[in-house]
Design brief:
heterodimer, A: 139 residues, three-stranded antiparallel β-sheet, 1 helix, globular, B: 2 domains, four-stranded mixed β-sheet, binds zinc ion, Thiolase_C_2 (chain B), Thiolase family protein (chain B), acyltransferase activity, transferring groups other than amino-acyl groups (chain B)
C-alpha cells in the first residue's frame, strides 16, 4: 500500500472516530445528542440546533445515486487521478438521509444511473485511511 | 441610528493552546461553533430565530485560516438574508457593527449577528486549515472543484426536468453572439450548435462550452447620493430593488440541486421594486455555467420550475429578442475576471439602461434584472444568492 499519492483527509480530534470506524469497515455519521438531527459532512456543531454535543452513529452504508459525473479530464486535483479516468464522482444519498460525495466503483461508468442502489465498500489507501466508496448493491 | 441596539453577546474562554498546561488547542472553526452556542444560551434565542436575519463574519489575517462567509454559515447551519464579511483587521468588529446597523436601520433585517473567531496559536493543529469539507470529504474522491459539482447539477437537472444538451447549447451560442458585438469580450467568434455539441466533455455531461472562461480584468462602479449624482451624470441608474439569501435550506441534508436561492432573492427584489418579471427588459444572470442560467430563468420567474429547457427552446434570448439574456456575452464568452466576475453583469445592466451598449443595445432597456451566485455548497448548489433590479429615470 505504499506510495498512495492522491489527496487524503486529515485526521483530527473531530474526525478520528470516523476514520477508525472506516478502517474497521464501518461507516459512521454525526447525530446530535440534543435534537437527533443527522448530518454529513462532520462539523463541530449541529446545523439544526447549534448544539456542540454530537455523537457518531453507525449507518447501513446503503443508499442511492442522487447524481453523478464522469470525470474525463483532471483539472484542479492531483494528477494521480489521471490514470483512473474515466471515473465516476457521485452524490450518494444514504438511507439515513444524508448526502455524501464519493465514487461509484465496480461498474462501467457508462452503466451508472441516477437512482441506482449502491452499498459502501472501503478502499484501504494507507494504514490510517480507508475511504468509503460505493458499489452496485447486491439484489 | 437610535433605532439600533446591541441585544446580546458571548465570549469563549481564551487559551494559548498550551496543551502541557491543560489548555485547549482548538481551531477557529471550533471557536465559531462555541461562540454561537454561547450566544444562543445567553440570549435564550434558538438558532431558527436567526433564520432570515443578518450575519457578519470576519476575515482572518492568517492565510491558513482564511475563513469565508460561505464556509462559516455552512458549518454552523445559519441561513441569513443578509451576509457580509469584514477584512478590516483590528477594526473587524466595528466594521461589521456599522454595516449591521445600516441593514437594521434600513429595515432590511431585524437582527444582525456579528461573529468572529481566530486561533493564531493553533496554526499547526490538525484541522486548522480551512475548507475542511472540500479537502476531507470531496477531493480524496477526485472531485475537481466546481466542474464536478456543476456537472452533477446538470445531470440531475436533465434527469428531473428532461433538458437536452441543445438547451444548454442555445445559451452558449446566444451569449457568444452577444460577445461578438462586445468590443471588450474575450471570445468573439460566433458558434454553431454543431460546435457546441462537439466540444469536449470535461466532466460528463459538462462540456467545455458550458463553462465560463477565466480572464484578467477590472471593473468599478460608483454609488452617490441622488442629489450629488446630478453633478456627475444626467443618466443616473437607480437601484429599484434588491434581495439576497444565503445557505438556502441550511438544515436539509438532501437538497434538490436543481434549485438555487435566487427564487427567494428575486421575490424580495420584485417586491421592493414593485415590479414583476414581465416588466424586465433584459436579464443578466450569473453564468459560471450554462445550467446556472437555465435554473435562474425559472427562479427569477420568467418561466416555471422545470420549464427552463422548453422556455429556452421557444424564446429568443438575443439582444433583439423577447427576453435578452447576458447581453455582454456573459462570463461564458466575455469572460470571468476571477473573483471580480460578478461585476460584469451589473456593469452591462448599467450600460444597457444608459443606452450605451452599442450594437447589442436592447430597445427601451429602462429596467432589468441582474443576479449573482457565489460559494458552491456541499451537496447543494450555491451559498450566496443575489437579485438586483436596476432602472433608468
Ligand atoms: Zn441539534
Amino acid at each position: 500500500m505504499t506510495g498512495y499519492a492522491k489527496p487524503l483527509p486529515e485526521i483530527t480530534d473531530l474526525t478520528k472516530p470516523l476514520w477508525e470506524a472506516s478502517k474497521r469497515g464501518e461507516l459512521v455519521i454525526q447525530k446530535c445528542k440534543k435534537c437527533s438531527h443527522m448530518q454529513w459532512y462532520p462539523r463541530h456543531s449541529c446545523v439544526n440546533c447549534a448544539s456542540r454535543e454530537m455523537e457518531w452513529i453507525k449507518v447501513s452504508g446503503k443508499g442511492r445515486v442522487y447524481s453523478f459525473t464522469i470525470a474525463r479530464q483532471v483539472i484542479g486535483n492531483s494528477p494521480e487521478f489521471q490514470k483512473d479516468i474515466p471515473f465516476v464522482v457521485a452524490e450518494i444519498d444514504l438511507e439515513e438521509g444524508v448526502r455524501l460525495y464519493s465514487n461509484v466503483v465496480g461498474v462501467n461508468p457508462d452503466d451508472v444511473k441516477i437512482g441506482m442502489q449502491v452499498e459502501v465498500t472501503f478502499e484501504e489507501c494507507t494504514p490510517e485511511i480507508s475511504l468509503p466508496k460505493f458499489k452496485p448493491a447486491k439484489t | 441610528m437610535k433605532d439600533v441596539v446591541i441585544s446580546g453577546y458571548s465570549e469563549t474562554p481564551f487559551s494559548r493552546a498550551r496543551v502541557d498546561k491543560g489548555e485547549p488547542r482548538l481551531t477557529a472553526e471550533e471557536y465559531y461553533a462555541w461562540a454561537l452556542e454561547l450566544l444562543l444560551q445567553n440570549t435564550g434565542l434558538e438558532k431558527k430565530d436567526l433564520k432570515g436575519q443578518g450575519v457578519g463574519v470576519i476575515g482572518s489575517e492568517w492565510p491558513h485560516s482564511e475563513i469565508w462567509s460561505a464556509e462559516v454559515v455552512q458549518n454552523l447551519g445559519l441561513e441569513p438574508k443578509f451576509l457580509v464579511r469584514a477584512d478590516h483587521g483590528g477594526a473587524n468588529a466595528a466594521a461589521l457593527l456599522v454595516q449591521g446597523a445600516f441593514a437594521i436601520h434600513a429595515g432590511f433585517v431585524e437582527h444582525f449577528l456579528l461573529i468572529g473567531a481566530d486561533a493564531p496559536l493553533s496554526i499547526t493543529a490538525p484541522g486548522s486549515r480551512t475548507w475542511r469539507y472540500e479537502e476531507d470529504y470531496m477531493k480524496p474522491f477526485g472531485t475537481m472543484g466546481p466542474n464536478s459539482m456543476i456537472a452533477m447539477v446538470m445531470r440531475r437537472y436533465m434527469h428531473q426536468h428532461n433538458a437536452k444538451p441543445e438547451h444548454f447549447g442555445k445559451i452558449s451560442i446566444t451569449q457568444r453572439q452577444h460577445a461578438s458585438l462586445n468590443p471588450n469580450a474575450y471570445l468573439k467568434k460566433p458558434l454553431t450548435m454543431e460546435e457546441y455539441l462537439n466540444s469536449r466533455l470535461i466532466s460528463d455531461p459538462l462540456r467545455l462550452l458550458d463553462i465560463c472562461i477565466w480572464v484578467n480584468g477590472g471593473f468599478a462602479l460608483l454609488l452617490s447620493r441622488r442629489d450629488r449624482a446630478k453633478e456627475i451624470t444626467d443618466k443616473p441608474v437607480s437601484i429599484l430593488g434588491f434581495g439576497e439569501w444565503h445557505n438556502p435550506e441550511a438544515e436539509n441534508q438532501l437538497k434538490d440541486i436543481t434549485t438555487t436561492g435566487i427564487k427567494i432573492a428575486a421575490e424580495q427584489a420584485y417586491k421592493m421594486a414593485g415590479k414583476r418579471p414581465s416588466d424586465m427588459k433584459f436579464f443578466q444572470p450569473y453564468d459560471d455555467y450554462t445550467v446556472a442560467v437555465l435554473m435562474q430563468l425559472e427562479e427569477a420567474g420568467f418561466c416555471s420550475k422545470g420549464e427552463g429547457g422548453r422556455f429556452i427552446e421557444q424564446t429568443d434570448i438575443s439582444h433583439r429578442g423577447d427576453l435578452p439574456v447576458n447581453t455582454s456575452g456573459g462570463q461564458l464568452s466575455a469572460g470571468q475576471a476571477g473573483m471580480a466576475g460578478g461585476f460584469l453583469h451589473i456593469v452591462e445592466a448599467v450600460r444597457q439602461i444608459r443606452g450605451e451598449a452599442g450594437e447589442r443595445q436592447v430597445k427601451d432597456a429602462n429596467i432589468g434584472l441582474v443576479t449573482a451566485l457565489g460559494g458552491l455548497a456541499f451537496g447543494g448548489t450555491f451559498i450566496h444568492n443575489y437579485a438586483i433590479i436596476l432602472g433608468g429615470e
